[in-house]
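W.,

You were right to be curious about this one. When I first looked at the sequence I had no strong expectations either way, so I just let the prediction run and decided to look at it fresh. Below is the sequence, 476 residues in total, followed by the output.
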Amino acid sequence: MRKNYMKCFLLAALIGMTGCNDFLDVESKSQFSEDIVFSKEETAAGMVNGIYHYFGETNSYRSRLISYVGVNSDSELQSAAADGSESTQDRRSMAVYLQNANLADGFNNAGGKEPWSYLYAAIEHCNLCIAGIREYGNPAPGNRMGELLGEALTLRAFFYFDLVKYWGDVPARFTPLSKDDLFIPKSDRTVIYDQIIGDLGYASELLPWAGGSATTTSVERVSKGFAKGLRARIALNAAGKALVRQDRNNTAGGDAGKIDYVFEDAAKRQQLYDIVKNECIDVIGSGKHPLSASFSQIWKEVMNDDASAGRESMFEIGFKTARGQHGRLLGMVSSVTKYTEKEVSPYVIAMPTLFYDYAEGDSRRDVTLVPYKYVKTSQKLTGGDEKNGFQDISDITKISFGKYRTSYRDYEKNGPMKGDDWGTNFPVMRSADLYLMAAEAINELEGPANAKPYLVEVRNRAFGSQDGNLNQYAAY
Protein backbone atom coordinates (compact mmCIF):
# COMPACT_ATOMS: atom_id res chain seq x y z
CA MET A 1 0.00 0.00 0.00
CA ARG A 2 2.76 2.41 0.95
CA LYS A 3 4.67 1.81 -2.29
CA ASN A 4 1.58 2.41 -4.37
CA TYR A 5 0.80 5.55 -2.42
CA MET A 6 4.26 6.97 -2.97
CA LYS A 7 4.06 6.29 -6.69
CA CYS A 8 0.76 8.16 -6.88
CA PHE A 9 2.17 11.02 -4.85
CA LEU A 10 5.23 11.45 -7.03
CA LEU A 11 3.16 11.27 -10.19
CA ALA A 12 0.73 13.91 -8.86
CA ALA A 13 3.61 16.11 -7.79
CA LEU A 14 5.19 15.93 -11.24
CA ILE A 15 1.90 16.68 -12.93
CA GLY A 16 1.39 19.63 -10.63
CA MET A 17 4.80 21.00 -11.35
CA THR A 18 4.18 21.15 -15.09
CA GLY A 19 2.67 24.53 -14.43
CA CYS A 20 6.22 25.80 -14.01
CA ASN A 21 7.18 26.78 -17.53
CA ASP A 22 10.80 25.67 -17.45
CA PHE A 23 10.65 22.48 -15.38
CA LEU A 24 10.38 20.02 -18.26
CA ASP A 25 11.63 22.39 -20.94
CA VAL A 26 15.31 21.62 -20.55
CA GLU A 27 17.99 21.23 -23.15
CA SER A 28 19.06 17.67 -23.88
CA LYS A 29 22.83 17.28 -23.64
CA SER A 30 22.69 14.41 -26.14
CA GLN A 31 20.64 16.23 -28.75
CA PHE A 32 22.34 17.30 -31.99
CA SER A 33 20.75 20.36 -33.54
CA GLU A 34 21.62 21.73 -36.96
CA ASP A 35 23.83 24.49 -35.61
CA ILE A 36 25.90 21.88 -33.74
CA VAL A 37 26.06 19.30 -36.54
CA PHE A 38 26.92 21.67 -39.38
CA SER A 39 29.27 23.99 -37.51
CA LYS A 40 31.77 21.19 -36.88
CA GLU A 41 33.73 19.54 -39.68
CA GLU A 42 33.58 16.05 -38.19
CA THR A 43 29.81 15.89 -37.76
CA ALA A 44 29.12 17.72 -41.02
CA ALA A 45 31.34 15.20 -42.82
CA GLY A 46 29.37 12.39 -41.19
CA MET A 47 26.14 13.82 -42.55
CA VAL A 48 27.55 14.14 -46.08
CA ASN A 49 29.00 10.63 -45.91
CA GLY A 50 25.51 9.38 -45.15
CA ILE A 51 24.29 10.49 -48.59
CA TYR A 52 26.23 7.62 -50.17
CA HIS A 53 24.17 5.16 -48.14
CA TYR A 54 21.28 5.48 -50.62
CA PHE A 55 23.32 3.92 -53.42
CA GLY A 56 23.41 0.58 -51.60
CA GLU A 57 19.69 0.15 -50.93
CA THR A 58 18.17 -2.89 -52.67
CA ASN A 59 15.52 -1.01 -54.64
CA SER A 60 17.91 1.81 -55.43
CA TYR A 61 21.22 1.48 -57.27
CA ARG A 62 22.15 -1.86 -55.73
CA SER A 63 20.25 -3.53 -58.55
CA ARG A 64 17.12 -1.81 -59.85
CA LEU A 65 18.31 1.54 -61.16
CA ILE A 66 21.45 0.13 -62.78
CA SER A 67 20.27 -3.21 -64.11
CA TYR A 68 16.51 -2.94 -64.61
CA VAL A 69 15.39 0.51 -65.75
CA GLY A 70 15.72 1.57 -69.37
CA VAL A 71 18.06 -1.22 -70.42
CA ASN A 72 16.26 -1.95 -73.70
CA SER A 73 17.99 0.05 -76.42
CA ASP A 74 19.65 -0.40 -79.79
CA SER A 75 22.56 -2.13 -78.02
CA GLU A 76 21.06 -3.85 -74.96
CA LEU A 77 18.11 -6.13 -74.38
CA GLN A 78 16.42 -7.30 -71.20
CA SER A 79 16.84 -11.06 -71.38
CA ALA A 80 13.21 -11.56 -70.35
CA ALA A 81 12.17 -9.80 -73.54
CA ALA A 82 13.97 -12.50 -75.51
CA ASP A 83 12.41 -15.51 -73.80
CA GLY A 84 8.92 -14.01 -73.32
CA SER A 85 8.62 -15.32 -69.78
CA GLU A 86 5.52 -14.06 -67.99
CA SER A 87 7.30 -14.45 -64.66
CA THR A 88 9.68 -11.68 -65.67
CA GLN A 89 7.05 -9.28 -66.98
CA ASP A 90 8.05 -6.69 -64.40
CA ARG A 91 11.63 -6.58 -65.62
CA ARG A 92 10.47 -6.26 -69.23
CA SER A 93 8.24 -3.32 -68.33
CA MET A 94 10.95 -1.51 -66.40
CA ALA A 95 13.35 -2.05 -69.30
CA VAL A 96 11.18 0.24 -71.44
CA TYR A 97 10.26 2.75 -68.69
CA LEU A 98 6.76 1.37 -68.08
CA GLN A 99 6.71 1.78 -64.32
CA ASN A 100 3.21 1.57 -62.90
CA ALA A 101 1.33 0.78 -59.69
CA ASN A 102 1.09 -2.93 -60.47
CA LEU A 103 4.79 -3.66 -60.87
CA ALA A 104 6.62 -5.72 -58.29
CA ASP A 105 10.35 -5.49 -57.50
CA GLY A 106 9.81 -2.40 -55.36
CA PHE A 107 8.45 -0.20 -58.14
CA ASN A 108 4.81 -0.35 -57.05
CA ASN A 109 3.13 2.36 -55.04
CA ALA A 110 2.68 0.11 -52.02
CA GLY A 111 6.36 -0.84 -51.88
CA GLY A 112 7.24 2.25 -49.87
CA LYS A 113 10.92 1.93 -50.64
CA GLU A 114 10.86 2.01 -54.40
CA PRO A 115 13.57 3.84 -56.39
CA TRP A 116 11.49 7.03 -56.64
CA SER A 117 11.31 7.27 -52.87
CA TYR A 118 14.98 6.49 -52.40
CA LEU A 119 16.03 9.14 -54.89
CA TYR A 120 13.93 11.78 -53.17
CA ALA A 121 15.12 10.63 -49.74
CA ALA A 122 18.67 11.07 -50.99
CA ILE A 123 17.81 14.53 -52.33
CA GLU A 124 16.26 15.52 -48.99
CA HIS A 125 19.44 14.38 -47.25
CA CYS A 126 21.44 16.53 -49.68
CA ASN A 127 19.11 19.50 -49.09
CA LEU A 128 19.63 19.26 -45.33
CA CYS A 129 23.40 19.15 -45.74
CA ILE A 130 23.47 22.03 -48.23
CA ALA A 131 21.25 24.29 -46.12
CA GLY A 132 23.03 23.42 -42.87
CA ILE A 133 26.57 23.89 -44.17
CA ARG A 134 25.66 27.16 -45.85
CA GLU A 135 24.13 28.54 -42.66
CA TYR A 136 26.54 27.24 -40.04
CA GLY A 137 29.68 25.97 -41.74
CA ASN A 138 31.25 29.03 -43.41
CA PRO A 139 32.06 27.11 -46.63
CA ALA A 140 34.57 28.56 -49.07
CA PRO A 141 36.92 27.31 -51.78
CA GLY A 142 39.90 25.64 -50.18
CA ASN A 143 38.38 24.76 -46.80
CA ARG A 144 36.87 21.49 -45.61
CA MET A 145 33.33 22.87 -45.29
CA GLY A 146 33.53 24.12 -48.85
CA GLU A 147 34.52 20.66 -50.05
CA LEU A 148 31.61 19.10 -48.16
CA LEU A 149 29.17 21.60 -49.66
CA GLY A 150 30.52 20.89 -53.14
CA GLU A 151 30.12 17.18 -52.53
CA ALA A 152 26.48 17.53 -51.45
CA LEU A 153 25.65 19.81 -54.40
CA THR A 154 27.21 17.35 -56.85
CA LEU A 155 25.39 14.35 -55.42
CA ARG A 156 22.06 16.20 -55.47
CA ALA A 157 22.61 17.05 -59.13
CA PHE A 158 23.40 13.39 -59.84
CA PHE A 159 20.18 12.17 -58.20
CA TYR A 160 18.03 14.80 -59.94
CA PHE A 161 19.55 13.99 -63.31
CA ASP A 162 18.59 10.34 -62.87
CA LEU A 163 15.07 11.30 -61.78
CA VAL A 164 14.59 13.30 -64.96
CA LYS A 165 16.08 10.51 -67.10
CA TYR A 166 13.71 7.92 -65.66
CA TRP A 167 10.53 9.95 -65.08
CA GLY A 168 10.76 13.13 -67.17
CA ASP A 169 9.29 16.23 -65.49
CA VAL A 170 9.34 15.73 -61.70
CA PRO A 171 8.83 17.90 -58.59
CA ALA A 172 11.76 20.25 -58.03
CA ARG A 173 12.64 20.67 -54.37
CA PHE A 174 15.91 22.41 -53.51
CA THR A 175 15.25 23.25 -49.86
CA PRO A 176 14.53 20.93 -46.91
CA LEU A 177 10.96 19.77 -46.41
CA SER A 178 8.60 21.83 -44.30
CA LYS A 179 4.99 21.31 -43.25
CA ASP A 180 3.93 24.00 -45.72
CA ASP A 181 5.31 22.36 -48.86
CA LEU A 182 4.97 18.61 -48.43
CA PHE A 183 3.05 18.27 -51.68
CA ILE A 184 4.23 20.18 -54.72
CA PRO A 185 3.47 19.73 -58.44
CA LYS A 186 5.99 18.62 -61.01
CA SER A 187 8.26 21.18 -62.64
CA ASP A 188 9.42 21.51 -66.20
CA ARG A 189 12.73 19.66 -66.45
CA THR A 190 14.44 22.83 -67.71
CA VAL A 191 13.92 24.33 -64.23
CA ILE A 192 15.78 21.41 -62.71
CA TYR A 193 18.49 21.46 -65.38
CA ASP A 194 19.10 25.18 -64.89
CA GLN A 195 19.42 24.74 -61.12
CA ILE A 196 21.75 21.76 -61.11
CA ILE A 197 23.93 23.08 -63.94
CA GLY A 198 24.41 26.25 -61.89
CA ASP A 199 25.02 24.24 -58.71
CA LEU A 200 27.69 22.13 -60.39
CA GLY A 201 29.46 25.24 -61.64
CA TYR A 202 29.78 26.40 -58.03
CA ALA A 203 30.55 22.91 -56.72
CA SER A 204 33.52 22.60 -59.07
CA GLU A 205 35.00 25.71 -57.45
CA LEU A 206 34.72 24.11 -54.02
CA LEU A 207 35.89 20.58 -54.75
CA PRO A 208 39.54 19.51 -55.11
CA TRP A 209 40.88 17.56 -58.05
CA ALA A 210 41.25 13.80 -57.70
CA GLY A 211 43.93 13.12 -55.11
CA GLY A 212 43.78 16.67 -53.81
CA SER A 213 42.32 15.74 -50.42
CA ALA A 214 41.97 12.72 -48.17
CA THR A 215 38.52 11.89 -49.52
CA THR A 216 39.32 12.32 -53.22
CA THR A 217 42.03 9.65 -53.21
CA SER A 218 39.20 7.26 -54.08
CA VAL A 219 36.85 7.39 -57.06
CA GLU A 220 34.06 6.41 -54.67
CA ARG A 221 33.88 10.09 -53.66
CA VAL A 222 33.15 12.96 -56.01
CA SER A 223 35.89 15.38 -57.06
CA LYS A 224 36.27 18.52 -59.15
CA GLY A 225 36.77 16.51 -62.33
CA PHE A 226 33.55 14.58 -61.85
CA ALA A 227 31.55 17.72 -60.98
CA LYS A 228 32.74 19.31 -64.21
CA GLY A 229 32.10 16.15 -66.20
CA LEU A 230 28.61 15.76 -64.76
CA ARG A 231 27.88 19.40 -65.55
CA ALA A 232 28.93 18.75 -69.15
CA ARG A 233 26.80 15.61 -69.38
CA ILE A 234 23.71 17.37 -68.05
CA ALA A 235 24.25 20.43 -70.25
CA LEU A 236 24.63 18.20 -73.31
CA ASN A 237 21.38 16.44 -72.44
CA ALA A 238 19.64 19.75 -71.79
CA ALA A 239 20.80 21.11 -75.14
CA GLY A 240 19.05 18.26 -76.90
CA LYS A 241 15.64 16.87 -76.10
CA ALA A 242 15.04 19.17 -73.13
CA LEU A 243 14.86 22.18 -75.43
CA VAL A 244 12.70 20.47 -78.04
CA ARG A 245 9.00 21.24 -78.00
CA GLN A 246 6.13 20.25 -80.26
CA ASP A 247 5.43 22.86 -82.90
CA ARG A 248 1.66 22.54 -82.73
CA ASN A 249 1.05 25.82 -84.58
CA ASN A 250 3.17 24.69 -87.52
CA THR A 251 5.40 27.76 -87.19
CA ALA A 252 8.24 25.83 -88.83
CA GLY A 253 6.29 25.74 -92.08
CA GLY A 254 6.01 21.98 -92.34
CA ASP A 255 3.19 19.92 -93.80
CA ALA A 256 -0.28 21.02 -92.75
CA GLY A 257 -1.61 19.03 -89.83
CA LYS A 258 1.79 17.53 -89.03
CA ILE A 259 3.32 18.12 -85.62
CA ASP A 260 6.94 19.12 -86.06
CA TYR A 261 9.53 19.56 -83.32
CA VAL A 262 11.60 22.69 -82.91
CA PHE A 263 14.24 24.03 -80.54
CA GLU A 264 12.64 26.73 -78.44
CA ASP A 265 15.79 28.65 -77.54
CA ALA A 266 18.69 28.54 -80.01
CA ALA A 267 20.78 30.98 -77.97
CA LYS A 268 20.42 28.89 -74.84
CA ARG A 269 21.31 25.78 -76.78
CA GLN A 270 24.59 27.34 -77.87
CA GLN A 271 25.27 28.45 -74.29
CA LEU A 272 24.81 24.86 -73.12
CA TYR A 273 27.18 23.54 -75.80
CA ASP A 274 29.73 26.11 -74.65
CA ILE A 275 29.46 24.71 -71.12
CA VAL A 276 30.04 21.18 -72.42
CA LYS A 277 33.06 22.24 -74.45
CA ASN A 278 34.69 24.32 -71.71
CA GLU A 279 34.18 21.82 -68.89
CA CYS A 280 35.45 18.87 -70.92
CA ILE A 281 38.51 20.71 -72.18
CA ASP A 282 39.27 21.87 -68.64
CA VAL A 283 39.22 18.34 -67.23
CA ILE A 284 41.15 16.87 -70.16
CA GLY A 285 43.75 19.63 -69.86
CA SER A 286 44.18 19.02 -66.12
CA GLY A 287 45.81 15.66 -66.80
CA LYS A 288 44.16 14.25 -63.67
CA HIS A 289 42.27 11.54 -65.56
CA PRO A 290 44.43 10.09 -68.36
CA LEU A 291 43.00 7.46 -70.67
CA SER A 292 43.91 3.91 -69.73
CA ALA A 293 46.47 2.21 -71.94
CA SER A 294 43.88 -0.34 -73.05
CA PHE A 295 40.11 -0.62 -72.93
CA SER A 296 40.24 -3.97 -71.12
CA GLN A 297 42.38 -2.49 -68.34
CA ILE A 298 39.46 -0.35 -67.18
CA TRP A 299 37.30 -3.39 -66.48
CA LYS A 300 40.10 -5.46 -64.99
CA GLU A 301 40.53 -2.69 -62.43
CA VAL A 302 36.81 -2.72 -61.67
CA MET A 303 36.72 -6.50 -61.31
CA ASN A 304 39.67 -6.38 -58.92
CA ASP A 305 38.31 -3.59 -56.71
CA ASP A 306 40.78 -0.87 -57.71
CA ALA A 307 39.09 2.36 -56.59
CA SER A 308 42.18 4.57 -56.60
CA ALA A 309 41.85 8.07 -58.03
CA GLY A 310 43.86 9.53 -60.89
CA ARG A 311 42.85 6.92 -63.45
CA GLU A 312 40.48 7.06 -66.42
CA SER A 313 37.59 6.24 -64.09
CA MET A 314 36.40 9.49 -62.54
CA PHE A 315 33.56 8.45 -60.26
CA GLU A 316 32.18 5.04 -59.33
CA ILE A 317 29.23 4.04 -57.20
CA GLY A 318 31.05 2.13 -54.50
CA PHE A 319 29.77 -1.27 -53.44
CA LYS A 320 31.22 -3.60 -50.87
CA THR A 321 30.60 -7.24 -50.01
CA ALA A 322 26.93 -8.27 -50.30
CA ARG A 323 26.07 -5.12 -52.25
CA GLY A 324 26.01 -4.41 -55.99
CA GLN A 325 24.23 -6.93 -58.19
CA HIS A 326 24.99 -5.22 -61.51
CA GLY A 327 28.13 -7.26 -62.16
CA ARG A 328 26.19 -10.50 -62.22
CA LEU A 329 23.13 -9.03 -63.94
CA LEU A 330 25.14 -7.31 -66.69
CA GLY A 331 27.99 -9.80 -66.87
CA MET A 332 29.20 -12.67 -68.99
CA VAL A 333 27.47 -16.06 -68.91
CA SER A 334 29.49 -18.38 -66.71
CA SER A 335 29.20 -21.68 -64.91
CA VAL A 336 30.50 -22.16 -61.39
CA THR A 337 34.27 -21.99 -61.85
CA LYS A 338 37.37 -20.95 -59.96
CA TYR A 339 36.33 -17.31 -60.60
CA THR A 340 32.79 -17.46 -59.26
CA GLU A 341 31.01 -19.49 -56.63
CA LYS A 342 27.63 -19.03 -58.29
CA GLU A 343 26.49 -19.43 -61.89
CA VAL A 344 26.22 -16.16 -63.81
CA SER A 345 23.01 -15.82 -65.83
CA PRO A 346 22.70 -12.13 -66.82
CA TYR A 347 19.43 -10.20 -66.96
CA VAL A 348 20.74 -8.03 -69.79
CA ILE A 349 22.17 -9.38 -73.05
CA ALA A 350 23.42 -7.75 -76.25
CA MET A 351 21.39 -7.00 -79.31
CA PRO A 352 22.76 -9.45 -81.90
CA THR A 353 23.34 -6.68 -84.44
CA LEU A 354 25.66 -4.82 -82.07
CA PHE A 355 28.46 -7.28 -82.75
CA TYR A 356 28.46 -6.19 -86.39
CA ASP A 357 28.27 -2.47 -85.62
CA TYR A 358 31.91 -2.46 -84.54
CA ALA A 359 34.40 -1.70 -87.29
CA GLU A 360 37.07 -4.27 -88.06
CA GLY A 361 40.00 -3.97 -85.67
CA ASP A 362 38.09 -2.21 -82.87
CA SER A 363 39.51 -3.70 -79.67
CA ARG A 364 36.46 -2.62 -77.69
CA ARG A 365 34.26 -5.19 -79.41
CA ASP A 366 35.85 -8.28 -77.92
CA VAL A 367 35.92 -6.72 -74.46
CA THR A 368 32.31 -5.59 -74.61
CA LEU A 369 30.71 -8.57 -76.36
CA VAL A 370 31.32 -12.26 -75.77
CA PRO A 371 29.73 -14.85 -78.11
CA TYR A 372 30.85 -17.57 -75.74
CA LYS A 373 30.60 -18.56 -72.09
CA TYR A 374 33.02 -19.67 -69.43
CA VAL A 375 32.28 -23.20 -68.28
CA LYS A 376 33.55 -25.93 -66.04
CA THR A 377 34.04 -29.11 -68.01
CA SER A 378 36.09 -32.26 -68.20
CA GLN A 379 37.18 -31.25 -71.69
CA LYS A 380 40.17 -28.96 -72.15
CA LEU A 381 39.01 -25.74 -73.79
CA THR A 382 40.72 -22.74 -75.31
CA GLY A 383 41.71 -20.06 -72.83
CA GLY A 384 41.46 -22.22 -69.74
CA ASP A 385 42.95 -25.12 -67.89
CA GLU A 386 41.92 -28.78 -67.76
CA LYS A 387 38.55 -28.07 -66.16
CA ASN A 388 37.71 -24.50 -67.07
CA GLY A 389 37.51 -22.72 -70.38
CA PHE A 390 35.57 -20.84 -73.02
CA GLN A 391 32.79 -22.50 -74.96
CA ASP A 392 31.04 -20.98 -77.99
CA ILE A 393 27.36 -20.20 -77.65
CA SER A 394 24.97 -21.87 -80.07
CA ASP A 395 22.51 -18.97 -80.45
CA ILE A 396 23.42 -15.50 -81.68
CA THR A 397 20.63 -14.03 -79.54
CA LYS A 398 22.51 -15.10 -76.40
CA ILE A 399 25.58 -12.86 -76.73
CA SER A 400 26.36 -11.40 -73.32
CA PHE A 401 28.43 -8.44 -72.20
CA GLY A 402 32.03 -9.04 -71.21
CA LYS A 403 33.08 -6.01 -69.19
CA TYR A 404 32.07 -7.71 -65.95
CA ARG A 405 33.56 -11.08 -66.86
CA THR A 406 34.60 -13.23 -63.93
CA SER A 407 37.82 -14.32 -65.65
CA TYR A 408 39.15 -10.76 -65.21
CA ARG A 409 39.21 -11.49 -61.49
CA ASP A 410 42.53 -12.32 -59.84
CA TYR A 411 40.87 -14.98 -57.72
CA GLU A 412 44.10 -16.06 -56.03
CA LYS A 413 44.69 -12.54 -54.71
CA ASN A 414 41.15 -11.22 -54.29
CA GLY A 415 39.09 -14.40 -54.07
CA PRO A 416 36.29 -15.53 -56.40
CA MET A 417 33.01 -13.73 -56.91
CA LYS A 418 30.41 -14.77 -54.35
CA GLY A 419 26.63 -14.87 -54.33
CA ASP A 420 24.39 -12.42 -56.15
CA ASP A 421 26.19 -9.27 -54.96
CA TRP A 422 29.80 -9.17 -56.06
CA GLY A 423 30.66 -5.85 -54.44
CA THR A 424 32.19 -4.51 -57.64
CA ASN A 425 31.88 -0.80 -58.29
CA PHE A 426 29.78 0.75 -61.05
CA PRO A 427 31.72 3.31 -63.14
CA VAL A 428 29.51 6.37 -63.64
CA MET A 429 31.94 8.42 -65.69
CA ARG A 430 35.29 7.94 -67.42
CA SER A 431 37.52 10.52 -69.06
CA ALA A 432 36.77 8.87 -72.41
CA ASP A 433 33.23 10.21 -71.96
CA LEU A 434 34.63 13.74 -71.78
CA TYR A 435 36.60 13.35 -75.01
CA LEU A 436 33.44 12.18 -76.79
CA MET A 437 31.25 14.90 -75.26
CA ALA A 438 33.83 17.52 -76.25
CA ALA A 439 33.79 16.19 -79.81
CA GLU A 440 30.00 16.36 -79.95
CA ALA A 441 29.76 19.89 -78.56
CA ILE A 442 32.61 21.26 -80.68
CA ASN A 443 31.10 19.66 -83.78
CA GLU A 444 27.89 21.61 -83.11
CA LEU A 445 29.73 24.86 -82.38
CA GLU A 446 32.67 24.82 -84.77
CA GLY A 447 32.29 21.90 -87.15
CA PRO A 448 33.91 18.47 -87.57
CA ALA A 449 37.48 19.62 -88.24
CA ASN A 450 37.88 21.00 -84.72
CA ALA A 451 35.96 18.14 -83.14
CA LYS A 452 38.01 15.39 -84.78
CA PRO A 453 41.09 15.53 -82.49
CA TYR A 454 38.99 14.63 -79.43
CA LEU A 455 37.27 11.75 -81.18
CA VAL A 456 40.59 10.47 -82.50
CA GLU A 457 42.07 10.22 -79.00
CA VAL A 458 39.49 7.61 -78.02
CA ARG A 459 39.58 5.77 -81.32
CA ASN A 460 43.38 5.63 -81.39
CA ARG A 461 43.26 3.45 -78.32
CA ALA A 462 40.47 1.34 -79.76
CA PHE A 463 42.26 0.65 -83.04
CA GLY A 464 45.88 0.94 -81.95
CA SER A 465 46.57 3.45 -84.69
CA GLN A 466 47.36 7.12 -85.06
CA ASP A 467 44.40 8.04 -87.22
CA GLY A 468 41.66 6.50 -85.11
CA ASN A 469 40.62 4.53 -88.18
CA LEU A 470 38.63 7.59 -89.28
CA ASN A 471 39.91 7.40 -92.84
CA GLN A 472 37.13 4.90 -93.56
CA TYR A 473 34.57 7.68 -93.20
CA ALA A 474 34.22 10.00 -96.15
CA ALA A 475 32.98 12.85 -93.92
CA TYR A 476 36.45 13.10 -92.43
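Here's what jumped out at me. DSSP finds 19 helices and ten strands in the chain. And, maybe more interesting for your project: The chain has a mean pLDDT of 84.

Coffee later to discuss?

I.
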